[in-house]
Amino acid sequence: MKLSNLPKEKIALVAVSRDCFPMSLSVSRRDALAEAYEKKYGGEGNLYVCPVCIENEKDMLAALEDIKANGCNALAVYLGNFGPESPETLLAKYFDGPAMYFAAAEVSSGDMLDGRGDAYCGMLNASYNLSIRGIKAYIPEYPVGTAEECADMIAGFAPIARAVIAVKNLKIITFGPRPQDFIACNAPIKCLYDLGVEIEENSELDLFESFNAHAGDERIPAVVADMEKELGKGNKKPEVLQKLAQYELTLLDWCEAHKGSRKYVAIAGKCWPAFQTQFGFVPCYVNSRLTSRGIPVSCEVDIYGALSEYIGAAVSRDAVTLLDINNSVPADMYENCIKGSYDYSHRDTFMGFHCGNTPMCKLTSGEMKFQKIMARTLPQECTNGTLEGDILPGKVTLFRLQSTGDSRLRAYVAQGEILPVKTCSFGGIGVFAIKEMGRFYRYVLIKKNYPHHGAVAFGHYGRELFEVFRLLGVGDGEIDHNRPENFLYPDENPFRQV
Q1: Distance between alpha carbon 240 and the CA centroid of its chain, in Å?
Q2: For position 381, what pLDDT does the model report?
Q3: What's the CATH code of the domain at 145?
Q4: Cα 249 from Cα 283, distance rounded (Å)
């Protein structure tokens, strides 16, 4: 799936050389690395090889000018030998984009005199220099390798760089304050500015005015036709498509007109309690359609939910969703459908649910329906617009970036899967299984006051998301994950009930 509203990373490969080592060693190793990358990942077209090898600060300035002139927005600093720690780290300081540092392994026991680069040692000096300059850079888990291994490191950096670039060029557009009883989705905006994200907060009255101005828009029939094609047999509420198409165009036009100085947008919208009665529908299906194009639209004005979704889309280059970490799996469902077939305890499982915002491409069989919860207190006809169905089984990553009430960033990441088990329920919903979820739920989600919304990426992207959060400034100890049984959380009672 090709998503719009996302950046394309162009990574500059820059070699460095210490003046008491032969520059030719770094240059030849850089060229071998570039060749290995082209052979394995050349189809990405995202690597630029800088011809300047940096030995001093003047070289650094020349390299900086060259990579900027060639449109690079990410940086891979390669220690082909020991490397000059000041020039090589100043490059990242002056470069406006994410940077990684990695180093060449020695090649042959037969060439350990003039062919020994000592880059293993050089990485220590580079990391120390980055630290004292206050530069956050990505360093692979084991940052020393052969040309082929270093090519894999660059490929591993690409989605991380893409997400950081995306966040730094993002505007989040909101409509309305959070509904009553949704203080849990608190959104202190200071951390958004710390991250480099812009925010534009609007009234839902502004949105309603714009929606009404789109009545009779000549583009509506084409959008309706596209919705009909996507829904197919799942088009159970055709009478609402005209209004939904009008709303979709309203949001898209608003984004284009209000993007301002930013390249990318995400939306946090208010969807109740007055939305249904005034607009005459619920926005879930439209939210799902925009999200499938790389423009996440979170429910209930969840600003950090929208941000999290956008980061997940940038990392995965795929559609994402935002779900309530909602309900436990019934005991009989666990006994009949999971136990003995999958290696999960009952407490490892839960159901992720939302009214109908998960994209059609991530449902087993999506249908346009009405919002059952809202219809308990409202006329059913004004709650039409949800996209319902069981979520596709497969690997998933559950994650969230969040500001605390006192404006500190924290995050969590947990990998697992959606099981091919029928939910027997409504909405966009799936049976999730994550190892030690019960403890993670208690000692991370509850203990650290996370809201009930979790972003979901379809695949295992824990490594990439962890590194993105680290580069975005989430502090040490503030990125949580689900811990194995014998690895206690800081406040976990070692004498807990079984």
Answers
A1: 32
A2: 87
A3: 3.40.50.10940
A4: 12
